[in-house]
Amino acid sequence: MEQLNEIYTLRVFEDRNPYRVLIRTILSQRTRDNNTDQATKNLFLKYKDIYEVADAPIEELEKLVKVAGFYRVKARRVKEVSNLLIDQFGGEVPNNSKELLELPGVGQKTANCVLVFAFQKPAIPVDTHVHRISNLWGIVNTMQPEKTEEELMKIVPKKLWIELNDLMVQFGQTICKPIYKQCEQCPLTELCDYYLTQYENKNE
Asked: Any binding-site annotation on 113?
């Protein structure tokens, strides 16, 4: 059974299913990546597709996604979005930003994640890692993720947009961590405003 769970988990996260990408991104709001992964795994091991999720009791959905935090709000949102997709889009996830943004609980970051990871369409999903690292490097000087997205779209070639989020998230999870930055392992210190400022302050 454990091996079956592992195989199914890999399928959930690697098949680029637009519905699963959308739901996972909704569950990821205001929580850590490992909590998002666990909640998504719990949900899709129990309910295999959008129709099963839409018909699921809200109490059961709450239990399955509880690890992601704000579970009552997220469970209600997952069910609401699922039913709306069935009613208005025949159970399919839209592949354009305009219609995605009309879905309840879907903001620009979520829409961009779906476009990039499900449909391979150029966009720049700006999560906490992308926003934070972009400002640490000094390539943008912004307060809001939405503004970071605007600035990155101006300076990053469009052909690199799809890869940008994935690479920066991995970088933020392994090297440029929010609390314990691994500057000694970073290959970009000479280009990083944060590091250069810290280095200069230490040598004054």
From this structure: no
